[in-house]
Design goal:
253 residues; alpha/beta; Rossmann fold; seven-stranded parallel beta sheet; 12% strand; SDR_fam; NAD(P)-bd_dom_sf
């Protein structure tokens, strides 16, 4: 798969990883980037610096009408990067209610599903193309102080596997990207190690070029994915100790 000359749509483009995706795609020589975000004004500087290649679009992936309208309007897309996501940083039992969990599922799972469904015919018409889903290693193992987020990412991982199977016949590559903690504003209070957003993007785009289906950017993701194969129950028990308050404990060490 050659990125050069491609037309790409990136959701969650105003965030730390989203902006790095735009820079990485520009460096790869793509023809056009539809930079999608809920607040397009956050993309004005990127548009100003690259007026011929970046098209900011207002898109909330939880709004099905907006998703379907985007697929109808931006019919030249051959690479879809599902980067939009949210977390409410809460456990399952300790959360005050299930509203946060519903919000995470609406964005991380149903939003990704809606984008895949809407753009699958677009990609097919353009020769197959690629879908990249920014998941998380936490889709494979639960970190209890943000347990509902992990559950939504587990659903997104399962969704990715299903979409990969269903779209294989039309020649669509589906890449799952599973980093550990990424060094963004969201994770500013988290302890190291953290992987740089630029490294996440580099690994993801290399996966597209080399047609690799699952990748684990960063040392943390590499280590934990290996531990999941070596001693999954041991890793589960280790992470089970990380309940609400663990970040405060780690800061004091």
């Amino acid at each position: 798969m050659k990125l050069e000359g491609s037309v790409v749509l990136v959701t969650g483009a105003s965030g730390g990883i989203g902006k790095e995706f735009i820079q990485g795609l520009l460096a790869a020589g793509v023809a056009k980037i539809y930079a999608a975000a809920r607040k397009v004004e956050a993309l004005e500087n990127l548009k100003a610096a690259n007026p011929d290649k970046i098209v900011p679009i207002k898109l909330d992936v939880t709004n099905l009408a907006q998703v379907n309208e985007a697929a109808a309007q931006y019919h030249d897309v051959n690479v879809l990067i599902n980067n939009a996501g949210i977390t409410r940083d809460q456990g399952v039992i300790s959360a005050p209610d299930i509203d946060g969990a519903r919000q995470e599922m609406e964005t991380n799972y149903f939003g990704t599903m809606a984008m895949c469904r809407a753009f699958a015919p677009v990609l097919k018409a353009n020769g197959g193309g690629v879908i990249v889903n920014l998941i998380s290693l936490l889709g494979k193992i639960n970190l209890p102080f943000m347990g509902t987020y992990c559950a939504s990412k587990a659903a997104e991982l399962s969704l990715t596997q299903c979409v990969r199977a269903e779209l294989a016949a039309q020649g669509t590559l589906v890449v799952g990207v599973m980093p550990g903690t990424v060094d963004t504003a969201f994770a500013k209070d988290y302890p190291p190690p953290k992987v740089a957003p630029a490294e996440v993007v580099r690994v993801a785009l290399d996966a597209v070029i080399n047609e690799v289906e699952d990748v684990y950017p960063g040392d943390q993701a590499t280590y934990l994915s290996a531990e999941l194969l070596r001693d999954p129950k041991g890793l589960e028990k280790q992470l089970a100790g990380m309940l609400p308050g663990i970040l405060e404990q780690l800061k004091q060490q």
